Amino acid sequence: MIEVNKTFSLHPHVDQKGLMEYRKKAIGTLLQTPGIVEVRSQRNVLGTPQVRLTSLWQTLADWAKFAESDKRFALDDELRNFASDIRIEIWGPSPTVPEPHHPRK
Fold first, then answer.
1. Which stretches of the chain drop beneath a pLDDT of 70?
2. How much is the pLDDT for 44?
3. Cβ atoms of residues 6 and 75 within 8 Å
4. CA 87, CA 4: separation in Å to the nearest integer?
5. Rounded-to-integer distance, Cα 90 and Cα 83, Å
6. How confident is the model over 61-76, as pLDDT tens digits?
7. CATH number, domain at 40?
8. Is residue 45 part of a domain?
9. What are phi and psi of 8, to 5 degrees?
10. Phi, psi at residue 75, to the nearest 5°?
C-alpha cells in the first residue's frame, strides 16, 4: 500500500464556504478513483502546515495514474485559490518493518 500526504497552509481570511465546497468535491473525486483505499484529513495543532490530506492507494501505479490525470490537475489548480505551500510526499512500506506493531492487550 502507498500513502500520499499532501500538506498545505490556508490563506489568511480563506473563504470557508468555498473551501468546504472544494473539500467535498476533492474528497468525492478521490473516493471514486480506482485504487483508492482511504482518505483522511487532519489539522496541525502546532501551526503550519495547517492541513494534511492523506490518501492510501493499493499500488504506486494507481496513484501515478491519478497523479497524471486532468482531474488531479484541476483539483490542484482550484486548491491554490485557498492554500499555499502545497507539498506532496509519497510513502511506501518499510523493508525492515513492513507491518504495523501494536501494544499487547
1. none
2. 95
3. no
4. 10
5. 20
6. 999 999 999 999 999 9
7. 3.30.70.100
8. yes
9. -165, 165
10. -65, -45
Number of structural domains found in the chain: 1
Report yes or no: 13 and 88 within 8 Å, Cβ to Cβ: no
Cell of 70: 486532468
3-class DSSP state of 86: strand
Pick the closest to residue 6 from 65, 71, 79 (CA basis): 79
Sheet containing 36-43, strands listed edge to edge, beginning at the edge strand earlier in sequence = 36-43, 51-57, 2-10, 83-91
Residue 44, all three cell numbers? 496541525
Give the up-direction half-sphere exposure of residue 27: CA atoms within 13 A in the CB hemisphere: 13
Domain limits for position 34: 2-91
Q: How far lies 20's CA from each of 15, 36, 54, 68, 70, in Å?
A: 9, 21, 17, 25, 21
Report residue 83 as a C-alpha cell. 492554500
**pTM of the complete model:** 0.90
